[in-house]
Write a structure and sequence with these properties.
heterodimer, A: Ubiquitin-like (UB roll), Rossmann fold, five-stranded mixed β-sheet, 19 helices, 35% helix, 14% strand, B: Glutaredoxin
Chain lengths: 573, 154
């Protein structure tokens, strides 16, 4: 323990921590900007500077370790003035037309300026207007709002191992961009959207689909249906001021009905369907000695990555569409037929924790009629929360409602798709039981759970040991994919998710997502699983009815036509 | 293959980046780097291309546009910038008939900005290829330019 003083208050704090951590532990919140939990300490922005007795200049509290006898002044006039000047300079090179920005009232720079009492800027603007990049389906980059904090660069480089975004140029000409100032569509970007989730301002955002959805909802000729991904129900509450990890399934359904959707469905239904299809694919490959390991294909960030950097592994990918796209194709075929609605009049919206899902929905390989997208608009968790706020819905007081029939029945196996290891566990529950032809003794496959970057496990099926592996974040995906490329891995089945923690930590999740917060969401997801009556996908009678009434056999001809796809080599040079 | 020969000289170590880039650039009469070269360097050293580009864009001694024989780099950091007796840039622009960033038609001169050259006591300062000139005046600029021209004639 070290004895220090903060603002003349004597304190005992653990050795080795930073000023910022010591202050936080004692209820002083030093303002920060480039600092972000889980990312490297950059001390780029200098907003967290404090005065330390004996130090010549001001010290950045995020990067300065405490020592015994240290005397720190957080709010000395000198520190406050420095902070203020730094933020004023940022504002002088920032498009501060706040009401025209999606981040208005939800912007870290705005909050900072407010808390520092900046109501007018002493500096003239030096902003030189730059073009807004919006040429890809997922991410919009507005360099006019960038304050060069470096969080996006860091998450792209260290968490995802991609290094798509970098700082270019120096001093006030510095910019964040892909190499050579290219656009994201022309480089190895997977659209995972982690950059958009950590951006403190409105410089990197998901492509806004809320306008398209409002228009569709307002169009009397359109039958507008919505599906909600497994990870949304444990994260949406955070954007609407509910406690971390709140399970808001019922309120979310009620809110979607209030927004005017004709039907509200659960993506968990097609997640169960995915397990049946993918499970049969795995069983088929195991029995016929097909290409192994089989690798999951639910995550569009991973798919983009695989197609760009590991095209030689495409044969390993499951040919199953993701739950989002299975829902889309069924909506425009089976559902249209059942309800007697022209598929052209059905508008399918999905709510996803993900920005890459916007890209996936636009893929030409994902169109059952060969010309129109099956999923017409994709909202992120943040966008849905925004629409709920725009509608003025008192979310917390809503009476819980159920998903629409008859697809409201879903399994706990589908619920855990949102957590890393979840698809693996869901598949194992079904594959093991189907192959062994007797009920599982234990439903939980604890060895594939957890948050280690790469997890390996052995699973006994009919007396045979099968090796499986789970990876999350693209950096870990690369390590695992490289092993598979080199050959000789013992795995039969691999699950890969591009984002940290899986979909709970997706690029479209609420601002302020950290691994700590994701762990809480994962806890809630397993809670949903435990509280669900049916916990295995193949026990979902509604899914099995769909097979007998419409699809035929799992992995059969009709199922292949509607629920499977193919991938292409997208190497960019 | 000039590039291949240069790359082979260096171990596959990330700290060689600037040396490799300078070597590649200096072997070319245009003293500039291309996307293809950056890609090859990044591949050789095992660095992301975005990082290599970041380094090239940071240092003013690297360029990604072809340059003339004499590269005039005028410092624009504070002490040089605050010099108010005359504007080095504007003077050079009118003497050479080009804008900053451009190269004269005869390929003799390229006019650029530079970050601090470390000679603040002699502000305003500029560098011509590897030589630094301080305490600049309009006369001195004229002399430097005609010296460069006569070098070329010789």
């Amino acid at each position: 323990m070290a004895k220090i003083k903060i603002n003349n208050m004597p304190l005992n704090v653990p050795d080795g921590i930073t000023i910022l951590e010591a202050a936080k532990e004692n209820n002083f919140n030093i303002p920060t900007l480039c600092y972000y939990p889980d990312l490297d300490i950059k001390s780029d922005c200098r907003v967290c500077v404090v005065e330390v007795k004996g130090h010549k200049g001001l010290s950045t509290s995020c990067s300065t370790p405490i020592y015994d006898g240290m005397e720190i002044k957080i709010n000395s006039p000198r520190a406050q003035n420095a902070r203020k000047a730094i933020v004023e300079m940022m504002l002088a090179n920032h498009d501060a037309n706040c009401t025209a920005c999606v981040r208005n009232m939800n912007c870290e720079l705005q909050r900072l300026a407010e808390s520092l009492g900046i109501h007018e800027n002493r500096f003239d603007t030096v902003l030189q207007e730059k073009a807004i990049e919006q040429s890809n389906p997922s991410i919009v980059r507005n360099a006019n709002r960038c304050i060069k904090c470096g969080r996006c660069v860091d998450v792209c480089k260290t968490v995802q191992g991609m290094s798509v975004l970098e700082t270019a140029g120096r001093s006030h000409d510095a910019q964040v961009s892909p190499a050579y100032g290219k656009e994201l569509k022309d480089v190895f970007c997977t659209y995972c959207g982690q950059c958009s989730a950590v951006c403190p301002v409105g410089a990197i955002m998901e492509k806004d689909h809320t306008h398209n959805v409002w228009d569709a909802l307002d169009n009397g000729d359109k039958h507008v249906i919505v599906q909600v991904a497994p990870a949304i129900r444990v994260s949406l509450g955070e954007e609407l001021n509910l406690p971390l990890g709140s399970i808001v399934t019922g309120k979310m359904v009620a809110a979607l009905k209030m927004l005017g959707f004709d039907r509200v469905f659960d993506t968990n239904f097609t997640a169960d369907l995915t397990i049946i299809e993918e499970g049969h694919e795995l069983i088929g490959r195991l029995k016929e000695r097909g290409k192994l390991p089989l690798i999951t294909s639910c995550c569009p960030g991973w798919i983009n990555y695989c197609e760009q950097e590991f095209p030689d592994l495409i044969d390993h990918l499951s040919s199953c569409k993701s739950p989002q796209q299975m829902f889309g194709s069924l909506a425009k075929t089976y559902y249209a037929q059942r309800e007697g609605i022209n598929p052209d009049d059905i508008y399918v919206v999905s709510v996803m924790p993900c920005t890459a899902k916007k890209f996936e929905a636009e893929r030409p390989e994902m169109r059952v009629n060969g010309k129109d997208p099956d999923v017409d608009a994709v909202l992120t968790t943040r966008e849905l929360a925004k629409m709920i706020k725009q509608m003025g819905i008192d979310f917390d007081n809503l009476r819980e409602q159920k998903f629409d029939k008859p697809d409201e029945v879903t399994s706990g196996a589908a619920a855990i798709f949102g957590a890393t290891g979840g698809v693996m566990e869901a598949a194992l529950r079904s594959v093991k039981e189907i192959l062994e032809e007797r009920p599982l003794e234990k439903l939980d496959f604890d060895t594939v759970r957890g948050t280690d970057g790469i997890r390996e496990a052995e699973v006994e099926i009919s007396g045979q040991t099968h090796h499986v592996a789970v990876a999350h974040t693209l950096a870990n995906a690369r390590t695992l994919a490289q092993k598979v490329r080199e050959g000789g891995t013992p795995y039969s089945f691999i699950e890969i998710m591009a984002c940290p923690g899986g979909c709970v930590g997706g690029g479209g999740q609420p601002y302020g997502t950290t691994s700590e917060r994701s762990r809480e969401r994962i806890y809630s997801i397993y809670q949903v699983d435990r509280l669900t009556k049916i916990r295995k996908s193949h026990d979902n009678a509604a899914v099995m009815n769909l097979y007998s009434n419409y699809l035929g056999d799992p992995s059969g001809e009709k199922a292949h036509e509607l629920l499977h796809t193919h991938y292409v080599n997208r190497r960019k040079k | 293959m000039e590039l291949k020969r240069i790359l082979e000289k260096y171990p596959k170590r990330q700290d060689c980046l600037i040396d490799v880039l300078l070597d590649v650039q200096n072997t070319k009469s245009t003293r500039h780097l291309t996307e293809v070269e950056l890609a090859r360097v990044s591949e050789h050293l095992g660095l992301p291309e975005s990082h290599v580009f970041s380094v090239v864009s940071f240092y003013s001694f690297f360029s990604m546009t072809p340059r003339g024989k004499h590269i005039l780099q005028v410092c624009r950091d504070v002490p040089c910038y605050l010099n108010d007796t005359f504007n080095v840039h504007e003077t050079l622009e009118s003497m050479l008939g080009i804008k900053t960033g451009d190269t004269t038609e005869d390929g003799l001169f390229t006019l650029e900005y530079s970050s601090c050259l470390g000679c603040c006591d002699q502000a305003p300062v500029m560098r011509v290829n590897d030589t630094v000139y301080g305490n600049l005046t309009p006369d001195k600029l004229r002399a430097i330019i005609s010296e460069c021209r006569s070098d070329d004639d010789a």
